[in-house]
Every structure is written in C-alpha cells, then in structure tokens.
Design brief:
alpha+beta, 7 helices, 8 strands, single chain, two-stranded antiparallel sheet, six-stranded mixed sheet
Amino acid sequence: MRGLEELGRVRLSPNFYMRDFLYSEIANFYAIPNIPEYPDIAIATGTPLCEELLEPLQATFGRITVRSGYRAVAVTAFGNKRGEGASIEANAAYHVWDLRDSEGCLGAAACIVIPWFADRYEEGADWRELAWWIHDHLPYSHLQFFPKLCAFNIQWHERPVRRIDSFVAPKGCLTRPGMPNHEGSHSTWYRGFPTLSGT
C-alpha cells in the first residue's frame, strides 16, 4: 500500500500525477487491483503522454477531465471477457502503459473530456472540429472519439501512426497516412478555436 501511495505521488508533468490515471470503475467495482506490474515503464510512457499531449490541451482549452488512463493487464482481460473493452494485445502500449506492443514499442493512452468542447458538442458542434485541431497541432499517435461528452482516447507512441477513428457519426476512420485528407492544414474546420498554448 505504501508503494502504491508513492507511485500515485509521481508527477508526470506540471499538472498531472500518476494517481490521476489509476482510477477504473470496473476495477473498483469488481475489486481488481489496477496497479502497474512495471511502474518504471508506466511512468516512462505516461510522462510524454502528459507533457506532449495533455498539457498543451489543458493550456489551450482549460481544465481537461481524465475518464480513463492506465489499465492493468488483469483489468483489461476481465473487461475484454465481458465485452467491455479491447484485448490485452490491442491495449498494449495503449491503455496498458507498461506493456510493449507486438512491434516492441512503448506507448500510453488516456480517455479524456474537454469541457470547453463538450459544451459546444452538446449544442451541435461536429466532433471533427476538435479532431482536426489536434491533428494539426499535436504529435498524437491515435485518436478515437465516443458519443458521450465527445470523450476521446488520445495516445502517445514512440512511433506515432497519426490515425483518427470515431464511434460518432460519421463513424469509422477519419484519416490515416495515405488518405488524401491526411496532410496539409484543416483550419477551416476549427475557426474560432483558441490558439495552441503551452508548447
């Protein structure tokens, strides 16, 4: 327990601590510890996630809310078995921060909500406005958008793929390398958005 307390106090960036990413509803409800097996790797991957992606988003749009961050292998396997999440293999270097993916690479993801945009989304704003803003401004690897609150997964990866998917209409892949819309500016989508801060 003392070790978990110390892990939670690890500061990943100016505004984020490891404890911010350890909460899990499914882990808490079913009493499955959501603790990294390899905390040093989880810290090493969570740090650039926070420094390069979450800090600029919070500096630009105001406070962001972390819905889900780190998921232990046991939590991931349990959720997948219940049909409530992807497999361990799919979550390696994604929500399972301390597990390398099939190519031996490191990565980390969090599911977040940006209240500044959630308010606009509730009034009819298109999720693609925020997606294209992030695409044009931040070194993300993968984004995946969800209908409730326009929450989205955002991933840091040491070999970023820069792909955007969505469960919000229009569903599917918005962009990936090789698609005609991948390169260049998409600023017509996000007129009136704040200027990038904190970089």
